[in-house]
Write a structure and sequence with these properties.
This protein has one domain. It has 214 residues and is mainly α. Keywords: Cell membrane, Membrane, Transmembrane, Transmembrane helix. One of its GO terms (cellular component) is plasma membrane. It is found in: Cell membrane.
């Protein structure tokens, strides 16, 4: 029983550290503040809530679809680990340079987003909050479940990550003033380093499993 609890707690820690590094709330918050600068505080809270709900729904869907995608396309978790590790390493490297790796938008699109009521869904919900890295992350984590009960652990990690993200977005202006842009960038670089370590470990685990099967 104790071994089961320890394994699940380790899996929860892996899920939380991976997801928090991938969604990168401290890196996204300054962008959110800039994109919603013309809105009132009440509207900002509404946009943040809708964006978080959108991102959460996407991650939860891919959490359930993970095993189906692996089976449908005959993809091994090892292959996905190696590929995901490469993607995570690149994202971590960008975070070390204090760059936010997300889908690019043109100046015209950005202006349209500012005038649109759907800004909370796109680009804030997708791909700002939930980008390719976060989606890849839940797919890999869903394939690394140590037991049948681990699905609940992964869902809990997604919910915890998004709740923390929402709190950070709600206090975005306060954080920007108190911590400052430099402070937020320092924390972002630390998360980037953690993400790179996780990425390397994913690649090592994938290669080790493949070698052991030979």
């Amino acid at each position: 029983m104790n071994d089961f609890i320890n394994i699940e707690l380790q899996y929860l820690a892996l899920c939380l550290s991976t997801l928090f590094a991938l969604v990168n709330p401290l890196g996204i918050t300054p962008i959110f503040v800039a994109m919603t600068d013309k809105y009132s505080n009440e509207e900002k809270i509404k946009i943040a809530k809708k964006g978080i709900i959108t991102g959460s729904i996407v991650l939860i869907i891919f959490t359930f679809l993970g095993s189906i995608i692996f089976q449908l396309y005959g993809i091994t978790i090892e292959a996905f680990q190696i590929m995901g590790g490469i993607i995570f390493f690149r994202s971590g490297l960008r975070m070390l340079d204090a760059k936010v790796g997300r889908s690019r938008t043109t100046e015209t699109e950005r202006e349209e987003f500012k005038e649109s009521d759907e800004i909370a869904i796109s680009p804030i919900g997708i791909p700002l909050i939930t980008g390719p890295g976060a989606i890849t992350g839940v797919l890999i984590l869903s394939g690394k479940m140590p037991s049948d009960y681990s699905l609940a652990i992964l869902l809990l990690a997604v919910i915890i990550t998004m709740v923390v993200f929402y709190i950070i977005l709600r206090t975005g202006n306060f954080l920007s003033i108190k911590i400052g842009l430099t402070g937020m960038r320092v924390i972002e670089r630390m998360m980037g380093l953690i993400l790179m370590v996780i990425a390397v470990q994913f690649v090592i685990n994938g290669i080790e499993t493949i070698i052991n099967r030979l």
